[in-house]
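Session log. Operator J.P. requested a structure for one protein chain; no other inputs attached. Running the standard single-chain path with token output.
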Amino acid sequence: MASEPHPAATVDHDDAATGPVAPGGRRGRGTGKKAGAASRGRRLFQHDRALGVRWVVGADEAGRGCLAGPLVAGAVLFDLERIGPREVRALGALDDSKAHTAEERERLFAVVLRLAERVGSVSRCVEGLDGRGLHVTNLEALSTAARRVARPGALCLTDGFRVPDTGFDQRHVVGGDAKSAAIAAASIVAKVTRDRFMHRAAERLPAWGFDQHMGYGTTAHQDAIRVHGLSELHRRSFRAVAYEGWL
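Structure written below.
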């Protein structure tokens, strides 16, 4: 079995772990590249404050639609009583991870680690995805990630899907990574964690160029599959055209 990505804090292979992160500290700098970044961050935190609770968990995934590599669910716990104007400014550019460049995600990742109370991730390997099915595995990973960072009194928010019981109050938010600060932060954690793994995988399996497409079904990736076949990281349960002749 291929090794799994490391989480924001610590991780077991094909499992999750969480670690407390002290809030406060030096304020992060904005990217200066996108107009309205500060107002976007305020809007996301306003959504979470309107829920009427102190502790908010967000959970989101990365890699659900990939042909290769693990699925990673990230989770973040914010204590909204410790998120003031300075912290909101530091996370002013917070948004769905897909709206950022890799460099912007790395910067936000560091800020999330500093300001969140708890950060964690769950990775699910290719064998598990093929054996249990993508959708079931995705829901389980989101629920597990949220549960691992939650604390008594927390409200767990997941992006898009109703997930198995976390043991805490919970709700799903359609388009949550563009509405909720906690979910948007979790999307950053999931994406950065998974991308780092795929970069390491590219060093070990250079023929498929995983550091360029992160396992998504780009033209270059499918061309590489036609030439080199399937690696240990490819999901056999998927039925991509490029798989023809290799399964």
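Operator note: The mean pLDDT is 87.
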